[in-house]
Every structure is written in structure tokens, then in C-alpha cells.
Amino acid sequence: MQSHAEMQELKRQIRRRAESARQTQTDKDSLSRAICHRFAALPEYSAAGTVMLYVGIRSEVRTQPLLSVAVAQGKRVVVPYCVGNELGLFLLESLDELAPGIYGIPEPRPELRALPGKRLQAERIDVVMVPGVAFDRRGGRLGHGKGYYDRFLPRLRPDALAVGVAFECQLVPEVPMLPGDVFMDRVITEKAVYPGRGRSA
User: Fold this and answer.
1) pTM of the predicted model, to two decimals?
2) What pLDDT band is residue 201 in, cutting at 50, 70 and 90?
3) What number of other Cβ atoms are within 10 A of residue 176's Cβ?
4) To pair with 156 at 20 to 30 A between CA atoms, which of 26, 97, 148, 185?
């Protein structure tokens, strides 16, 4: 059995390879459209009143078009932002409410975060789109190592859906999962929707 240190080193190696594959992936715009189309076609998304979508940056799956469509559809769209070691939740009504924040990630403008009706509890969310550096087909996820989503996802209702999204090139045979790491309910790439082991695993 591998030690904790060996597992962490294996994670670092997988993270480097997956990040390199994502950066060199061509045609990210069209692949992102295919991924977001699969995400929006989920029955759980169609039925959801409140969805949490991340704002893609750099080489990540581009999510801004889906954000705009979801707002136009009348869904309550929640975007995350960093507050210390936790994710804050913001009810987004326009992309104009975003500005570059920590790590250069577009986040809700600070002066808007405390406005009435802009803050939401995790229990209100029906479906969450989860970014990641690498995934496997069981729903194993590897993030950037900060643990934001691993701390956030257990706050969701048991019947809420956590969906990892990534380019197919980011899939690996197996992500090492440590205690506290959270399996996805689904993983979506441009090629398929993979059923994950789920957050109760």
C-alpha cells in the first residue's frame, strides 16, 4: 500500500501530465461547446432551478457561453469565488458582475457580494459543474491541490448532482483518491458522459 507521501507525489505527476495535455489541446472552443451541450442535455440540468457553474479561464473548458444561456433561460445561476479557504456562492444575473479576482479567475465584484439576494446557501443548489485538472472514468477528480471543491461538495444536498467537466485528454486511468477527496456523480468530456461512483463513495 502506498504511503500518503507517495500518493501525493503520484498526484503531482498526474497533475503535470494532465495540465500539459490540456494546454496543448487544440480547438478548445468547439470542444468546449460540445462539453457544455452534453452538460445542458442532462435531465438533471433541465429539471434544475439552481445551477452552479464555474467561470473557465486559460486552458480550462470554456463555460462563459453556457453561463449566458443559463441566465437567459431563467435559471438561478451561482458562480463560486474564493473566501479564505472556502468557496463563496454568488447569484449571477449578468456577466458584467464579474471581474478578475484571486488567481486571475473572474469572480463577482467585491462590492456586489454582500448585496441582498446575492448570497446563496449550498443546500439550494441542484446541479454543480466542477472543474478539474484530471479525472478518471469512475469519477475520481484531481484539482489544483487547494481543496476548495473537496471542502465544498459535502455541503450539497444528497440528491444534488456534481458533474466534472474536462477535455478527453485530461482523463487518466486512475486518480489516486485520499480520504476527503470526492468522487463525481458524472464526468463529461467532448466524447461521452461517464457515470461516476458519486459523492457517497
Assistant:
1) 0.93
2) low
3) 18
4) 97
What crossing angle do the helices spanning 28-40 and 64-72 adopt, rounded to 10°?
30
Q: Are 69 and 39 in contact (CB under 8 A)?
A: no
**CATH architecture entry for 4-195:** 3-Layer(aba) Sandwich (3.40)
CA pair distance 15, 175, nearest whole angstrom: 10
Q: What is the pLDDT of residues 69-128, one digit of tens each?
A: 999 999 999 999 888 888 999 999 988 999 887 677 788 999 999 898 898 899 999 999
Domain parsing of the chain, residue ranges: 4-195
List of residues 6+ apart from 62 with CB closer than 8 A: 28, 29, 32, 33, 36, 56
- Report the distance separating Cα 186 and Cα 199, nearest Å: 10
C-alpha cell at 62: 470554456
- The per-residue DSSP string of 59-86 comes to TSPP-HHHHHHHHHTT-EEEEEEEETTE
C-alpha cell at 21: 495535455
d(CA 119, CA 105): 19
Q: Where are the beta strands (DSSP E) in the chain?
A: 50-52, 76-83, 86-92, 98-100, 106-108, 127-130, 134-135, 141-142, 161-165, 186-188, 193-195
